[in-house]
Structure formats: structure tokens, C-alpha cells
Amino acid sequence: MKRNIRTTALLASALIVLFALPATTAQAGPDTPRVDLRVLVVSDGGPSTDAIAAELDNAGTPYTEIDLHDPARPVIDAGFLADVVDGRPRARFQAVVLPSDNPFAAGSGEMAALAAYEQTYAIPQVDAYTYARTQVGLNVPGYSGSVDGVTAQVTDAGAAGPFGYLDGAVPFEDNSPTVGESYAYLAQPAAGADFTTFVDAAIPGRSTRGSLVGEYRHDGRRELVVTFVYNQYQQQFRLLARGIVEWMTGGVHLGASRNYFAVHVDDVFAADDRWDSNLNCTPGDIDCPPGQGTENPIRMTAADVEYAVAWQRRQGLTLDMVFNGSGSVNQREDNDGVDALADAFVARRDSFRWVDHTYTHPFLGCVQDVSVVPWKCATRADGSTRWVSRTEISDEIANNRAWGRSVGLPLDDQELVTGEHSGLRILPQQPADNPNLAPALTDNGVKWLASDNSRDPVQRQVGPATTVSRYPMNVFYNAGRAAEQVDEYNWIYTSRAQGGSGVCEDNPATSTCLTTPLDTATGYADHIVPLETRTALGHVLSNDPRPHFIHQSNLTEDRIAYPVLDGVLDSYHALFADNTPVVNLRMKDIGTEMQRRAAWDAALDAGQVSAYRIGDTVTVQAPDGVAVPATLPTGSTRGGTAFGSAYAGEVSGWTTATGQPVALTLPSSAAAPAATARPADSATVSTAPLTTEPAGVTEPVPYAPED
User: How do residues 390-401 score in pLDDT, each as one tens digit?
Assistant: First the structure.
């Protein structure tokens, strides 16, 4: 977490990186203040300030958090907020986030100190959730109550300002008919107030609209006034979070955020076993006792390939085909040398990305004893675990590559997805990685290895490879038809008394539990698709590059994956402007992004990063070799070359500390806000605390998809 109160001494090897404005404005006088690029978050433990802190954390933007309930917290006074460094006035924070417009007691010296600080150094303040009142430039509320299911709207001023990355509509979630999810005060600007509404909604029973997010300018200060409550998981906050950060930082800050979506399709060319609705298991797989049931595999057809190509073209997204070459070899052996599916894929090979999934898709961890359900690791006479050998693992990787190249698939040998992510630890049966896995990865030059995010979410090293965790979608590998998916879903998530597995009785916090079974004819479209769409879209809107994975069985027969994927992408396109597209990366690029973030977060946590702005120059100090993320105004350059790449109306990117200063030039339109650079004689501030207690918000349990 980036919440350290003090900045520790930098390492001697730290790089100084300069972000500079044109020379005509870059020469700052000795009285020009230094403003540190760090946000002050003052929290009362409420969900709204926590949400903003989480957004800063997620983007890699440094901040300091002060808990108002902590008796040992520092006092927020003039000495805490500002000081003098090398004879120059220093503002220690570029923005202030408060839980309301005034969370302190009446007549508080801390609020007065903050107001004077903001006025002196032109520091913006975010009121994370506050009551509509004249002290924030608003009339009393025209409506106070639930806004669940309401569609708010970005105003023209919001679109021209910090929320220009949105297409206009800001829908508020309404996921539960019995739980209130968001409460708001809708009000119009007070007469004579210098208030600009950025996001508003219709006031029920009236022809007017009320502000939900707006800027109030008064007494030489600027406040972003937010009058609805939210938490970090809710879609309405996820949509507005970027704009809140860009407003308070002026679009110049460390850290970066984008919206990512990648979909891996596992088991391509192979066939997946099918769920048996009578046995409640999958014949041919290890969840059915040996010999029970009749196998009825699911395999894509040539027509499914053409459908996938057309779908990609329509949605503008490239799928990653994670393949097992033996599936095609076996098909040709059993079908007089014919495999129409492979022929169709090979003809369209350049339409997709391709990832090695091993040749025959074996389990590459311990040798499995499947004579029992659930399986266990086989052991030797002395009780030691029997492991799949290095040679077997290496052959599976190499043989699949060879087959892929023989048919012309464009491969990247650095990437590997083992069958079932096997070889990596899996609890409870196999608590450690197969010791033969890392040497086999070395043998084959593998640098990026997929892991299952529900079991192994933290990026780690496995020999020469770094893991890339993938989200499993709750669209089952053993279902090609919607009715099969619903039947298995019912069995997993209903009680034993209802004929289900009882998993929810054993784990009541499971978010997908059902009180009654779904209708097999309608349950997929009416329940599962909306839930999976919301879950995946939540990942997309959370600056999370990790890919999702489904199986080839989901792209054939009823093609049950597409309603979920369409739900995610159609919703996204309806919410975001064209300047904020979905970022669709291949596996190695996702791994690199995650690796850079981990190194950056470690440097922040260790107090090895500082950044400040003096006039029109920003100086960043970071350890040598660490990539520094930055978000800057459009038109920023490095050495005369455009910096970063365009996204959401700005540019963002990474610049690696190499031991030499790096200068980036901002456009003249990015001039820093005016500051007095001296203590204000007085600062007008309401000393009346917010006494109306805002309604609470129910924070949903974060959803973890099942395998």
C-alpha cells in the first residue's frame, strides 16, 4: 500500500527523471513553490474515501492516508502540509481527499489549516461524499434517497472536462431488490455559487436535474463535490474514478490506468468431455468414478471458426487460441486423414493469437491416483510423491510447438499454458510445484507461464518463467449447450436437499449460491449471463490486465461464451468514448505489465520514490532499473518524440530508470495552476462539520469465479 506518511531517503542509485514544460515557462523563480506529486487522503473509514484510495493504489499513484479514528495520527496543521526545502516553499501534497467537505469538529484548526493550504498553493480538494448544502455551493437536496438503477449523465461541462472519456451515460447498479446499494442527494447549484455540474441525474417528480458530481470554486479554492455514496467495486464509481483522479491531479501524476480485456480459449483442436445431467459428473474426467457413464465429447467445427472470425471483426477483439496439437492428429487418424476444424483454423491462423497448451494436455504435476474421488497424488513405497518427469514435461511443450509450426501457426515460444495449469501447486492434493517443471521450462525457453487466478493470483517466478494469472470464467469447460451449463450450475450452487452439491452450505460466503434452482430453459440467459458479464466487466473497469479463460467447447453447439463476451463488450462500448478503447494484449505483454507494476509498487512501499513539481518541471526520483509509470497531457514529448500513447484524452506510459536524467516536455496548455507561494492572510472556510450522517452502503463480497 502507498500510505507511508514520510518519504524515506532515496537510494544512492536513484534516477532523477525530469518532466519539463517548454523553456519559455520552465524557468521557475526561487519563490515558485515545490508541489510534491502525492495525494493526501483523510479517511473516516467510510467506503467512499477507501474507494478513492483503492483507485490511487491500483494506478500506482503515491498517496498518504490519515485515519481520523487513529488516536496516534499526526495533526493536520501548517507544518504537516507544507515546509521549506532548500530555501523553497514546499507543498507536500498535490491534492486533498476528505470524506466530506468538513469532517472535523466545529471550529477545527485542522480544517482551517487545510483551507489555507489549498488557497496558498492552489491545491484541489475532493469531497468524497457530502451532503448537498450551501457550504458546497448547492441548494438543499431536491431529492434524498436511493439511486439504485438510475442512469446519470455526464454534462457538457463534464465531457469537456475530466469525464471526456465517457460516452455520456453513467448507470448506477441495482443488483439486489432487497439491499440498498447507493444513496444520493440531488440538488441544484445555489444562487450566486460558482458551481459547475459534471454529472447529474433527474430529480424524481420534477422536471429539473440535480448534481451528483460538480466543481465548486470559492475563496481561491476548488472542491470536487460528490453527493452520492459508493464503494470501490460498484460500476458507477469505476466509471467515474479516472475522472476524479484526473481532476484532482490536473492530469499530471505518477501511475497509469487502462481498461483491459483478453480472452484465452483453451483446448483448441482437442475435444472436451461433457457433463452428464443424470450422474452429476463428467464421464471421461476424474470427477466420475472409473467406468461410470458414456463419454460424449464436445469439439468445435469449421463453421465455428468462421463464426469466431466474424465475431472478432464485429467486436474488434482478438481471441488467444490455446491449443493441443494431438487433438487434430487423433481426429485425422480416426477420420481417414480429415480434420475440417484444423483446416479451417489453419486457413484463418493469422486472425488469432496462438499459445502452446502442451501436445496431449496431460496433468503435469504429481502422478494422479484417480482410483478415488477426489484424486490424490500417487506415492512410492517409501511414501514420497511420484512426479511427472522433466522429460515428459519437456516433450509435451516441444512436441506441441513442432506440430504448431508444421501447420504454420504463428507462435511465441516464451508463452505456455499447461493443461489445468498443472505442474503448479494445487491445494489440497499438491501443495508444492512439481520440482521437474522449472527445469523443463528452462529446456524450452519459457518465460511466461499461465496460472489460475482463483488458486495462484500473485505473480511469481517458476524457474525462468514468470506466472500470468488468468481469471476462470464461470462458463464451464464441459458444457456446449446452455441447458447443460444451467444443470451443472444448479448442481454446484444449490443445497443438498435440492439435489445439489451442498458447496454453499459448506461455504456460505460463495457469491453464486442459489436459493432455488434455475430453469434450464431460461436460467442461462436470465441469470448466469448477466452475473458473468458483470463480473468480467468489473475486472475490465479495474485497470486489471489479467486475461480471462474459457474453453473451445464454449464456442460450439450453443456457443454459450458469446452472450457473456458480447455482454462485456457491448456494455463497454455503450459506456466509453472512442478515445478509451479496450486494450487487448497477448499473454507476454500482460505478464510484462504485471511485472512492471510489481516492481513499481515495491519501490513505492519501500519509500524509494518521490516526485515534485516546481513551476513547469516535474522531477521524479526512483531506483535505477525501475520502470516509472506516468500520465500526462496529450502532446507531451520526450526528447522531441511523443511520450507514451494516447488513452482517455491523455497520454500514459512507462519510462525506465537507467541512471541518466530523462526530460519530458508538457504542452503549454498544461501550465500549473496559480499559487500564491506564501501563507494566506486568511482563508474562508465553513467551520460547521457535516452533521447529517449519510446513508451507508452495502459492500458486495468480491466474486471469485469457480474453476
Answer: 999 999 999 999
Burial class of residue 690 (count of CB atoms within 10 Å of its CB; 0-12, 13-18, 19+): buried
- Return the pLDDT at 650: 95
Cell numbers at 79, concatenated? 507544518
Q: Burial level of 696, CB count in 10 A (0-12/13-18/19+)? A: exposed
**182 touches 167 (CB < 8 A):** no
Distance CA 170, CA 199 (A): 8
Cα of 138 vs its chain's centroid, Å: 34
Half-sphere exposure of 595 (CA within 13 A, CB side): 17
Going by C-alpha positions, the residue among 269, 288, 268, 272 that lies closest to residue 280 is 288
Give the three cell numbers for residue 209. Answer: 436535474
Exposure string (b/e) for 95-131, b if CB count within 10 Å is 16 or more? Answer: bbbbbbbbbbeeebebbbbbbbbbbbbbbbbbbbbbb
More confident call, 22 vs 594: 594
3-state secondary structure of 447: coil
**232, 221 contact by CB (below 8 A):** no
pLDDT at 690: 46
Name the residue with cell 519539463: 20
Q: Mean pLDDT lowest for which of 164-168, 332-336, 420-424, 631-635?
A: 631-635
The rounded distance, in Å, linking the Cα atoms of 421 and 432 is 13
Gap between the Cα atoms of 200 and 228, Å rounded: 11
What is the phi/psi pair of residue 52, to 5°?
A: -65, -40
Phi, psi angles (nearest 5°) of residue 260: -110, 145
Which triple of cell numbers denotes residue 193? 455559487
Percent of the chain with pLDDT over 70: 90
Integer angstrom CA distances of residue 325 from 49, 269, 397, 413, 437: 51, 6, 11, 15, 20
Q: Cα–Cα distance between 652 and 342 in angstroms, integer?
A: 40
Q: What pLDDT, in 10s, does the model give residues 566-585? A: 999 999 999 999 999 999 99
Say yes or no to pLDDT of 49 above 80.
yes
Instruction: Tell me which amino acid residue 707 is.
Output: D
Q: What is the CA radius of gyration of the chain?
A: 28
The rounded distance, in Å, linking the Cα atoms of 58 and 56 is 5
Smallest CA-to-CA distance from 468 within 592, 597, 603, 601 is with: 592
Host H or E run for residue 484: helix 482-493
Pairing relationship of beta strands 183-186 and 143-146 according to DSSP bridges: antiparallel
What would the grid cell of residue 377 be?
A: 497424488
The pLDDT value given to residue 636: 79
**Which alpha helices (H) appear in 279-407, and where do they start and end?**
302-315, 326-334, 340-347, 390-406
pLDDT in tens, 474-514: 999 999 999 999 999 999 999 999 999 999 988 888 889 99
Identify the burial level of 398 via C-beta atoms within 10 angstroms of its C-beta, where 0-12 means exposed, 13-18 middle and 19 or more buried.
middle
pLDDT at residue 21, as a whole number: 42
Separation of alpha carbons 25 and 674, rounded Å: 13
Kindly report the three-state secondary structure assignment for every residue of 605-647: HCCCCEEEEECCEEEEEECCCCEEEEEEECCCEECCEECCEEE
Tens digits of residue pLDDT in 15-44: 444 544 433 344 567 788 999 999 999 999
Please work out, in degrees rounded to the nearest 5, the angle formed at the alpha carbon of residue 412 by the alpha carbons of 409 and 418. 95
- Which of 153, 258, 230, 91 is CA-nearest to residue 678? 91
**Cell numbers given for 419:** 493443461
For cell 522433466, name the residue.
390
Average pLDDT, the chain: 91
SS3 496: helix
